[in-house]
Give the backbone structure.
Amino acid sequence: MKKPRFQSTGGMRQADNDRRPPAAEKHEQETLANYQDQAIPKSMESALLKMKDDLGNSADLAIRRISLCGDEGNHLAITYMQSMVEEMRLDEFVIQPIQRDDKLMEMMRERVDVCQRIQEHLLPIGNIKAVSNYKEVFEQLFLGGSIIFIEGSNTALVANIYGGPKRAIQEPITEMSIRGPREGFTESMRLNCMLIRRKIRSPRLWLEQFTIGEVTQTPVGIMYVKGLADEAVLEDLRERLNQIRIDGILESNYVEEFIVDQKWTPFPTIINHERPDAIASNLLEGRVAIVVDGTPFVLVVPSTLNMFFQAAEDYYHNFQMATFLRMLRFVSFVIALLMPSIYVAIIGFHQEMIPTQLLLKLAAQREGVPFPAYLEAFIMEFVFEILREAVLRMPSSAGSAISIVGGLVIGQSVVEAGIVSSAVVIVVAFTAISSFVAPVYSLGIAARLLRFLLLLAASTMGFYGISIVILLILLHLNNLRSFGMPYMKPFAPFYWTDVKDTLLRAPLWKMKRRPQLQTKDNPVREQSYVEPRQEPSQ
């Protein structure tokens, strides 16, 4: 597999830097470098003053000073961000053990570093680490850690007692299913990784963490099964993530737009899931998951077009029903993409293809309509896009009312007013219903955009224009890559063994091998060759 090249553009920061004077940019770089390299002073009060100055004396910065053995003066200080730490556990597992220890004061008087004693003997919590500069201090502080400063020591301790409000694990909103797990990802990266590990209980499931965003410092993790994931894909992904330079990462799409192979395409080349079982299934096939803190959508690379027609529920039904549903999704996608343009082409250029009785009825409906067929279709498609966006942005209580008003009242009114024909309303409505069948929302967006291009081609050249655009779309799809993998795999290039899990879903006991081009070292997924038994004929 050829390794694609990637070069980061710097994102939103690049445009800002072009307008800023060099002096301001140099000052910012020097300030950032000083902030990253500055060591923690031995004076506890100086360390606390530095923190308050860097945070602008923020109101949500809590500082708890501790005196040992009733002695005058403060010997330790614990700082944390309010509502990011569970304060009751902090008091029980950190503050009280430190206050009850009699040896700490004696060790401090003898000028002995007490960090090791606190870290190894006093605190009954698992995750404690030592930090020596302010970059590490602020990274841990905003992740929900409690920083312990010790008088006379230039090393601080981090006690990770995470707390604060989090959204509970709920059923996914965008990937509903009748049968299967009901749990979905949340906005917490740690919780999402835990949900994935509950599906794959293996030490071969590895997690690597990156920090992206010069201001937001967002944790981004990549998860993969060691021995199944392609090392070339992993190395390429690490390189692309390390090259991202942007102020903030607020959602996984920020990462997606920087690491895609082809940026000028309406088709999504990286799939996202809200279900842990879907991510676990992809990991077992040798793919890599990208988990971004602050979003419930986890990315999967590399991705192919075939994956956007699959749902996790396909493997929870029998293979006959799963095959029927996959074909239904593919047909629905074709309808959502082509139906309005086919209608315009037939009405405007190829009337001989319509049965005579139907042609007479369509002509009677269009009598008195002031617009040609292609303009009718454009108007109704544009009105429906406005209606769809209004339903998404309005509150849920008002959204249902808007959809009813838009679907019934507006549609009936424009027909009765003679602005459009009833056939156009039927075509647009059926197209809209078909577009909702796509299991992945981003694939439906591609169909919505290309639908207008096909309408334009149909309005100028009829079926010839549609054929040309479809040919260009197929050429474009064959040229797409996702981390070096052909987007149309396993159809182009063709792999017979992988066709078992495409538009067809073979029985699980027939899919003995993992997809090719992904698991070169460990291609066998099923060691047992047990097939369903049949009773011997009498």
Q: What stands out?
A: Residues 160 and 270 are 33 Å apart (CA to CA).
